[in-house]
Amino acid sequence: MDPLRIGIVCFPMYGGSGVVATEIGFALASRGHEVHIISHAQPVRLRTFLPNLMFHEVRLYEYPLFDSPLYTIHIAATIAHLIRYTDLQIVHAHYALPHGISALLARWAVESRRCRVITTLHGTDVTLIGPHASFAPITHLALRESDRLTCVSTYLARAVHRNFAIPLERIEVIHNFVDTQRFVPLPPDERRRRWETEKCLIHVSNFRPVKRVIDVIRIFERVHREIACELVLIGDGPERDRAEQYVLERGLHPWVHFLGKQEDIIPPLQHATVFLLPSEEESFGLAALEAMSCGLPVVASDVGGIPEVITHGQQGFLHAVGDVDAMAAATLQLLTDGDLWFRMSESARARALEFDAARIILQYERMYYRIMTGIQGE
Q1: What structural domains and CATH numbers belong to the chain?
Q2: Is 292 exposed, middle or buried (0-12, 13-18, 19+ CB in 10 A)?
């Protein structure tokens, strides 16, 4: 079928939605589609040059009448311009608020009958912010008027149905994905050697309160009392200062390393032993999937979409939110039982292959073509 002209609207931040949106764009461009990434800053995963992959930075103009830039309007204006200038066929918005609304405003503004709007829901826009009384009507508008809705997990699709009474048949579950050709484990012999000689726990996130970074450090603290190990924290966000202060107060700073935002997280994942994800809420758990693809067992909270990725006792361990003692005990088990660790390492890699990018991207591509031809199902 003919290549499509696709606009992808996302946040550039260090988080799952921005990573997924950018990786979708890159993969689609690699398959010959014309792709336009739209964001207020360059996304962290927008890397290799492709002639048919373009980035459009949204300019946030200030005007004395307004207390702050009108982000949603600026995004809508940029999308409207691209619909006119490039005849976009699809606008794929990541997050209902604000990007789904911005895409709809743009389509209405240019009165395009051809352009289709797809909204992918990643979590907080429909579980936390969207249902709030201040936003519920406008969120429902974005969900209702989008030509297609996708969710990154079955858990999230059910939450959308529960919170907004959107029929489940209108929601397509397309899981997040990982490039298993890039996120690869070290060779088995080297992994075994590193397990025997170096113990390193790792956490990657945007350091929002929901990620419970202090719990990550508390888990490490308990483990470190029993066995020599280090902790690597990758990312940045509102909880970083508090986390650093906690580390200093507990005298853990010689063994805890804050690396900040890293463009390439593959080497630290490959050299780590266990991935920690004690989040309060996760719609999917992309960071855990990328770690699994590198052969890392995961110790995580048993919440949200995480159980759709990790089976307790196979690719790692799942425990109740806030149960730091149980998570520490599970981590110690992985650090002291080599056979268990290697078995879970192999299982983690095998499970990650089921979410390979090539497989998931095909699901998005098929959905685009169905919508363009007016077919809403198989």
Answers
A1: 5-177+356-372 (3.40.50.2000), 188-353 (3.40.50.2000)
A2: buried
Mean pLDDT of 47-74: 86
DSSP annotation string for 199-217: -EEEEES---GGG-HHHHH
Contact 357, 175 (CB under 8 A): no
Structure-token pair, residue 144: 């209702």
Cα–Cα dist 338/330, whole Å? 13
The CA distances from residue 250 to 51, 222, 290, in Å, are 51, 12, 30
Query: Which residues, other chains included, contact 25 with Cβ-Cβ below 8 Å and sequence gap of 6+?
Result: 6, 8, 35, 37, 46, 53
Mind listing the pLDDT tens digit for each residue in 113-135?
889 999 999 987 887 787 778 88
Q: How far apart are CA 304 and CA 286, in angstroms?
A: 12
Tens-place pLDDT, residues 221-279:
999 999 999 999 999 999 999 999 999 999 999 999 999 988 899 999 999 999 999 99
Find, among 4, 39, 5, 34, the residue nearest to 21 by Cα: 39
d(C-alpha 93, C-alpha 146), whole Å: 9
Q: What is the structure's pLDDT at 257?
A: 98
Cβ atoms 237, 265 nearer than 8 A? no
pLDDT of 14 reads 58
Q: Give the residue among 310, 286, 290, 308 at the shortest CA–CA distance from 299.
A: 310
Burial 252-285, CB ≥16 within 10 A → b, else e: beebbebeeebeebeebbbbbbbbbbbbebbbbb
Helix axes 136-145, 154-164, angle to 10 degrees: 120
